[in-house]
Amino acid sequence: MHSPTPHQRRSTKMRLGVGLLALAATATAQRVVPISIAKAPLPGPGPHGLGRRAAYSSTLINQKNAYFTEVKIGTPPQTATLHVDTGSSDLWVLWENSDLCNSVALQEEWGTCVDTFSAAGSSTYETVGADAFQIAYVDETGARGDYFSDVVSIGDMTLKGLQMGIAVNSTCNWGMLGIGYNASVAAAEIYPNIIDLMVDQGKIATKAYSMYLNEYTAETGTILFGGVDTEKFYGELKSVPTIANKKTGAHDHFTVALTSLTAVSPSAQNSTALSTSPTPLEVILDSGTSMTYLPPSVTRPLYRMLNAIDDTSGSGSGQILVDCAQRTNTDLHLAFQFNGPSGPVVNVSAAEFILDDLRPYIAQGSLALPRNLPWKKDNTCRVGVLPAEHEPPYLVGDTFLRSAYVVYDLDNHAIGLAQSALGAAGSKIVEIKKGQGVPKVSGVAPPPPRATPAKQNAGVGRVREGLGAEAVGVAAAAALLGMGLLGW
Ligand SMILES: *[C@@H]1O[C@H](CO)[C@@H](O)[C@H](O)[C@H]1NC(C)=O
Ligand SMILES: *[C@@H]1O[C@H](CO)[C@@H](O)[C@H](O)[C@H]1NC(C)=O
Ligand SMILES: *[C@@H]1O[C@H](CO)[C@@H](O)[C@H](O)[C@H]1NC(C)=O
Ligand SMILES: *[C@@H]1O[C@H](CO)[C@@H](O)[C@H](O)[C@H]1NC(C)=O
After folding, report:
1. Nearest atom in ligand 2 to 192's CA
2. Keywords for this entry (predicted)?
3. 171 alpha carbon – ligand 1 mean position (Å)
4. Residue nearest (by alpha carbon) to ligand 2 atom 11
5. DSSP assignment string, 300-328
6. Which of the residues are catalytic?
7. pTM for this one?
8. Which atom of ligand 2 is nearest to the CA of 207?
9. What is the pLDDT of residues 443-485, one digit of tens each?
10. Multiple choice CATH, 33-210, 3.40.50.300, 3.30.565.10, 3.40.50.150, 2.40.70.10
11. Cis-peptide, bond into residue 47, ω within 30° of zero
12. CATH code that applies to domain 229-422+440-463
């Protein structure tokens, strides 16, 4: 290719219905750049496609479950609404003349294009590598095209000469803002990605950022490049090392050791280990994945406990179905502990790991549900923790990440974790200094423990039924974001 020519796209341009405001930096003396990220409905391919990618992709449920932010690219600036992804490392946009964005049939299959980019419309656009960009995601969508460089603004920060992908062919209907390690860029050679440029161009002191997704029902969260907001988490921020790729030795993903996962029932003063050490699970903290994927040996006892129905196989709904009443079970949470018995613990409440977003599909009759559900059909929710169909490392996505305040420290190969202060209104921003690592700072005081509910519900009874702890072995880390899966 590809001398891009300005050309009117035939397809309808669909804008996300949520205001995606870039916040002004609040701390002028500090090199900290906040950006607002908004949960937005994903314009998916419509209900007929629901089951198809369901194994990996909750993104097909056309509800608010992915995090987007707006960046401006080129001269004059063009808006690109991008999916924020800690699990990949390239920023890429959809070309206005891409196959997907010019075909009604393709968009019916893959979803309506969210923003497109006009290469010819930017005077600062420079081609870096024709045909050199090719990326494939675990959900088997992907994109290919060119690498280019151009000016990019994100929040109040402007970066010059950032290398980015432009998709000529795509099965992904929005662009991505990959903010992972540069070792995972989709190019043949590692290039400085957006995080590298932030430091290279003096915008932040160190390659680190904090992510606060906020609770399931909240519309927006925040990423703080170069800083930590001590009003957004409870207690201490604890640091754990990221695990290098076993094959290459490189730190290429935010992989950490999940050393125990426990279903805790405070009122019964009892808990059930879903997985335990000494065999940690290697998990990737991946904001680009809406759900969490853990081995079936871990998910099975959880589903039994919740009285949930695994409808992921065959031609079913592709979901783990559960009575929505379980969302309000305040007497149950999952405790994720990382890096051993003194490592950080993040509690995920039932209201956070059970999602109430199937109702519109049920009302439309577009979701095939099993007959004879043991609860009212209209009251069907889904569990945000799914059985992994892939090799480890496993993927821990938004259904976990919302409950955590996470500092991604790429310079020191470390992750800072604390319990997220959901719904926090205040803000107190602290810059992360060069060489400092995850700051040893405390957040707000933890809330007082909840009053013990007077009566135990069905879920809790099952917690006590003695689901045996199931140890889980971890095989060598697999390269998740393999290339060439698309067969182009
Ligand atoms: C890729 O997209 C271009 C531009 O829309 C189109 O001409 C071409 O046929 C597509 N290639 C494939 C393999 O789909
Ligand atoms: C990639 O990141 C590493 C670690 O931060 C850094 O040392 C290296 O210079 C970066 N590579 C490029 C091409 O920027
Ligand atoms: C998690 O839940 C446990 C048990 O209910 C509680 O003791 C602990 O303080 C909670 N941890 C955090 C970080 O809130
Ligand atoms: C906790 O549950 C286990 C089985 O899951 C049971 O053996 C034990 O007696 C229970 N302990 C308490 C204090 O209820």
Report:
1. 14
2. Aspartyl protease, Disulfide bond, Hydrolase, Protease, Signal
3. 11
4. 192
5. HHHHHHHT-EEE-STTS-SEEEEEGGGGG
6. 85, 286
7. 0.83
8. 5
9. 999 877 655 443 333 222 222 222 222 111 111 122 222 222 2
10. 2.40.70.10
11. no
12. 2.40.70.10
